[in-house]
């Protein structure tokens, strides 16, 4: 595996994933693809055809450029991964799958927190999918943090992080584990130390990419 393409829906996460890839994907050339209008357009594309077409075009461009795998860094588009993998003939991985697995392994009562409804629903669906795969019975609460996305979109990261951290504290008393649904929320986890595990997707996801795609060292090496 010489090149892996990351497909992003927000430019803000690209430096995060570039740093994680440098740490966990040694020797791999990383390509970053961006469509920063997809999340906004999900709400006006009820059958998903336009978004699917755009993801397909980006995926084909990655393959043409030599990518051997594609990684979705955004939970909002995770439901498109299976179809696109069939079309491209290369692995298409979801960055939030490892996070969902960790949550299901950690506790039964899970709160998933998001700043956009277009991310909340796919993340909840992924959690239920992974719980069923593991034979786990989970109780899931979906929490939308009003105002946080508008704050970060206007450049007010501090307000975004404070609103997310407040939501985490509110949910920690009644849940075993908390998920922050968007990769862009990861920075808010530092301000929400409640003793309850708060999971984010970037590092767990990139570690899963490495485990899935990179050859393992031979025993005794």
Structure, described:
There is one protein chain. The protein is 46% helix and 17% strand. It contains nine helices and eight strands. The strands form two sheets. A four-stranded parallel sheet has the order 2-1-3-4, with helices on both faces. A four-stranded parallel sheet has the order 6-5-7-8, sandwiched between helices. Helix 1 links the parallel strand 1 and strand 2. The longest helix is centred in the middle third of the chain and has 18 residues. Pfam families: Asp_Glu_race.
What CATH calls the topology of the largest domain is Rossmann fold
Helical percent range? 40-55%
Architecture per CATH nomenclature, i.e. the level-2 architecture of the largest domain: 3-Layer(aba) Sandwich
Order of helices and strands: EHEHHEHEHEHEHHEEH
Major sheet, described briefly?
4 strands, parallel
Instruction: Identify the CATH class of the largest domain.
Output: Alpha Beta
Low-confidence stretches: none
Distance between the termini: 20 Å
Rg computed from alpha carbons, rounded to a whole number of angstroms: 17 Å
* Percent in strands: 15-25%
The number of helical segments is: 9
Mean pLDDT: 91
Number of strands: 8
Strand order of the largest sheet: 2-1-3-4
SSE-based structural type: alpha/beta
Number of domains: 2
The global form is globular
């Amino acid at each position: 595996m010489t090149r892996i393409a990351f497909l992003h829906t927000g430019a803000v996460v690209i430096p995060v994933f570039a740093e994680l890839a440098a740490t966990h994907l040694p020797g791999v050339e990383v390509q970053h693809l961006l469509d920063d209008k997809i999340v906004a357009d999900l709400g006006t594309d009820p059958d998903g055809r336009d978004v699917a077409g755009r993801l397909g075009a980006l995926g084909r461009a990655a393959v043409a450029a030599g990518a051997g795998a594609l990684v979705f860094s955004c939970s909002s588009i995770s439901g498109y991964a299976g179809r696109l993998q069939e079309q491209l003939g290369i692995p298409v991985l979801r960055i939030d799958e490892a996070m969902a697995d960790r949550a299901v392994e950690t506790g039964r009562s899970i709160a998933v927190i998001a700043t956009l409804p277009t991310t909340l629903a796919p993340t909840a669906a992924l959690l239920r999918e992974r719980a069923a795969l593991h034979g786990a019975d989970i109780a899931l609460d979906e929490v939308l943090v009003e105002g946080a996305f508008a704050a970060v979109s206007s450049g007010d990261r501090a307000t975004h992080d404070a609103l997310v951290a407040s939501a985490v504290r509110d949910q920690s008393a009644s849940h075993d584990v908390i998920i922050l649904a968007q990769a862009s929320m990861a920075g808010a986890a530092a301000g929400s130390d409640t003793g309850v595990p708060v999971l984010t997707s970037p590092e767990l996801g990139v570690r899963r990419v490495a485990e899935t795609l990179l050859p393992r060292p031979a025993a005794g090496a």
